[in-house]
Amino acid sequence: xxxxxxxxxxxxxxxxxxxxxxxxxxxxxxxxxxxxxxxxxxxxxxxxxxxxxxxxxxxxxxxxxxxxxxxxxxxxxxxxxxxxxxxxxxxxxxxxxxxxxxxxxxxxxxxxxxxxxxxxxxxxxxxxxxxxxxxxxxxxxxxxxxxxx
Length: 149
Known about the structure:
mainly alpha; 83% helix
């Protein structure tokens, strides 16, 4: 999906190389956090590294917003804001769905957990949900405030 947005954006006008690099880095970090989110109960130094990775996940979109603010690029601001909103909305829906499947079969519970791990990769990777929820909320509100200008 992000690749399609980059290709569409590139065909409309010239895209600075750093914007493409930020999207690529952000997608790569999402894949990395999604893959590492299945490590059960990491401890010590590994947990520290996973927390840093989860916090680092929010650096590329923050750089995108800062760069878009300088260039007054409303499209990239909207993309980051909408992705942050979609992540927060999907998180709440999947958490509610996970609770609703509490009495269902174990297989359905496992499917819901896998979906939750993929959709909320930085949250599950660090195992400190508040950090990632705060990161998504900051991105969404920052993007919203930039669009109001």
